[in-house]
Amino acid sequence: MMRFVIAIALATLGAPVFAEASKEDSCRYQGQVMAAVQKARMDRVSKDKAASEILASNPTWPTEYSQAIPPLVDQVYSMKRRDLRKNDLGALFEQQCLANWDQIQAMKKSMQSN
Q1: What share of the chain is helix, strand, coil (3-state, %, to 5)?
Q2: What is the Cα–Cα distance from 12 to 67, expressed in whole angstroms?
Q3: Max CA-CA distance within the chain?
Q4: Surface-to-core class of residue 61, CB atoms within 10 Å of its CB (0-12 exposed, 13-18 middle, 19+ buried)
Q5: Are 62 and 29 in contact (CB under 8 A)?
Q6: From CA 9, how far away is CA 108, in angstroms rounded?
Q7: Among candidates 27, 38, 93, 88, which has minimal Cα distance to 61?
Q8: What angle separates helix 47-56 from helix 69-77, to the nearest 10 degrees?
Q9: Angle at 113 between CA 109 and CA 114, to 5 degrees
Q10: What pLDDT, on a 0 to 100 scale, did the predictor assign at position 49?
Q11: What's the CA gap between 54 and 57, in Å, rounded?
Q12: pLDDT band at residue 112, thresholds of 50, 70 and 90?
């Protein structure tokens, strides 16, 4: 799960506006996006329609966080629904983000300097 969190965080946190959000806010928004993707999967929304369905629900997170939806859809839709029933991915994602914030920020900084 750790590799998953770091990989997705690096893929989705590239926008400069994300750096302006506090650690807690950023991780909370990321968790909300992940929870929305999980809900779409559990509601049997097709993978092709997941992003549009999530955006049509008028999510409360800042619009910049919506760029995380496509990579999260790919990851979540590759998981078995029975595994999704057992876990709150939004809460797990938020928790892992908070726990690994410094590492993620260092990796982002390293990637930007290359």
Answers
A1: 80, 0, 20
A2: 7
A3: 41
A4: middle
A5: yes
A6: 9
A7: 27
A8: 130
A9: 120
A10: 97
A11: 5
A12: confident
Q: What percent of the chain has pLDDT over 90?
A: 52
Q: What angle do CA 28, 63, 101 make, to 5 degrees?
A: 35
Written as six digits, the tokens of 50 are 């997941």
- The two tokens of residue 71 are 């990579």
| Residue the block writes with tokens 């998953």 | 4
Which of 113, 102, 112 lies closest to 6 in space, CA to CA? 102
Neighbours of 98 (CB within 10 A): 15
For the stretch 22-71, pLDDT in tens is 889 989 999 999 999 999 999 999 999 999 999 999 999 999 999 989 98
C-alpha separations of 32 from 25, 90, 93, 106, 113 in Å: 10, 6, 9, 23, 29
Q: How many residues does the chain have?
A: 114
The Cα 16–Cα 19 span in angstroms is 5
Cβ atoms of residues 96 and 1 within 8 Å: yes
Structure-token pair, residue 107:
């990796």
